């Protein structure tokens, strides 16, 4: 990871100082893409550029942009993205679903190539590219270690939610981004706070609140409340991951009875696994503690009873000493 970050920093330095490099170095850094301006500044004559275009060694997809590597490349791969960004200009930033997909978001591959530019910038978008303007794009919202330039995963997801075709789709992609660990709820809240006026701020806030409700620090409070109400025995608690993130897991262990309960937002349904000689493992969806706490308690109590635990209400009353 450290080596990759150093390599990305080197590439960024090269990309921001094209005048100090040969055209080959610039093109290699940019997936075979270079602007005519940078090629000329690097010492290649315009007559040579025209010659390479005419004999088919190079290609010009957009005005002022050259493709120097004609090896087969995906239609929406790095080469195309570099060409789009270079065609629009140095302040162009990949955004929305396009940037989120590059960061690893799965399930939204049909998103168009979206480019963000400053609000006062007037430029035509290349064919097939969705151009959007933003008056609030801070340097901290641009990924510092990825090329072509793109918004951070959190900003990308917030933009996706704002631009989604429906409210339901906006909610789904927020949940997917968190559960796929593309961005944390905290990251998304911070990105939303910097986003400025948007029409779906309330929807996004409420969705993040619901996702946050499955975080272990809240789940533990609900579980302890169930324990007291149902008179379950005392247990030991452990959180794996940040306690305020729904993707973290709460583990509750009833040591004397060798029963372990795992509660998480990524658990889709309740499951009890029996392994003779080992712990009984109970997996509970975090939402079950909110929507059906009695059902959750009954599942845990059932596992405990299998290991010999007797509920206080079922224990025989001891005779009082005379």
Please describe the topology of this protein.
Elements: H1 2-15, H2 23-29, E1 33-35, H3 36-41, H4 46-54, E2 65-67, H5 78-88, E3 93-95, H6 96-103, E4 113-118, E5 129-134, H7 153-163, H8 167-179, H9 185-194, H10 201-212, H11 216-230, E6 236-240, E7 249-254, E8 259-264, E9 271-273, E10 280-285, H12 286-291, H13 293-306
Parallel strand pairs: 4-5, 8-10
Antiparallel strand pairs: 1-2, 3-4, 6-7, 7-8, 9-10
Give a written overview of the molecule.
There is one protein chain. This protein has 13 helices and ten strands. By secondary structure, the protein is α+β, with helices and mostly antiparallel strands. A five-stranded mixed sheet has the order 6-7-8-10-9. A three-stranded mixed sheet has the order 3-4-5, sandwiched between helices. The radius of gyration is 28 Å and the shape is elongated. 34% of the residues are buried.
């Amino acid at each position: 990871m450290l080596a990759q970050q150093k390599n990305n920093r080197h590439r960024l330095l090269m990309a921001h100082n094209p005048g100090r490099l040969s055209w080959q170095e610039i093109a290699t850094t940019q997936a075979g893409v270079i602007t005519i301006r940078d090629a000329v500044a690097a010492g290649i004559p315009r007559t040579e550029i025209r010659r390479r275009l005419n004999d088919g060694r190079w290609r010009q997809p957009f005005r002022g942009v050259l493709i120097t590597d004609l090896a087969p490349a995906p239609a929406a791969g790095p080469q195309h993205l570099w060409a789009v960004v270079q065609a629009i200009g140095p302040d162009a930033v990949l955004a929305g679903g396009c940037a989120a997909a590059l960061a690893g978001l799965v399930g939204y591959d049909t998103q168009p190539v979206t480019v963000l530019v400053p609000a006062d910038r007037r430029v035509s978008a290349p064919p097939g590219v969705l151009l959007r303007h933003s008056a609030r794009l801070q340097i901290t919202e641009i990924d510092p270690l990825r090329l072509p330039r793109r918004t951070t995963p959190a900003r990308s997801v917030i933009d996706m939610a704002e631009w989604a075709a429906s409210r339901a789709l906006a909610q789904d992609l927020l949940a997917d981004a968190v559960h796929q660990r593309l961005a944390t709820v905290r990251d998304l809240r911070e990105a939303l706070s910097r986003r400025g006026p948007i029409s779906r701020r309330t929807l996004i806030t409420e969705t993040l609140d619901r996702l946050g409700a499955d975080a272990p620090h809240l789940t533990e409070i609900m579980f302890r409340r169930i324990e007291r109400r149902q008179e379950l025995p005392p247990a030991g608690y452990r959180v794996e991951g940040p306690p305020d993130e729904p993707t973290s897991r709460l583990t509750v262990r009833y040591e004397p009875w060798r029963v372990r309960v795992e509660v998480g937002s990524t658990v889709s349904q309740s499951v009890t696994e029996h392994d003779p000689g080992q712990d009984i493992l109970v997996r509970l969806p975090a939402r079950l503690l909110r929507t059906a706490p009695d059902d959750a308690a009954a599942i845990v109590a059932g596992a405990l009873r299998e290991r010999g635990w007797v509920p206080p209400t079922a224990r025989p009353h001891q005779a009082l000493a005379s």
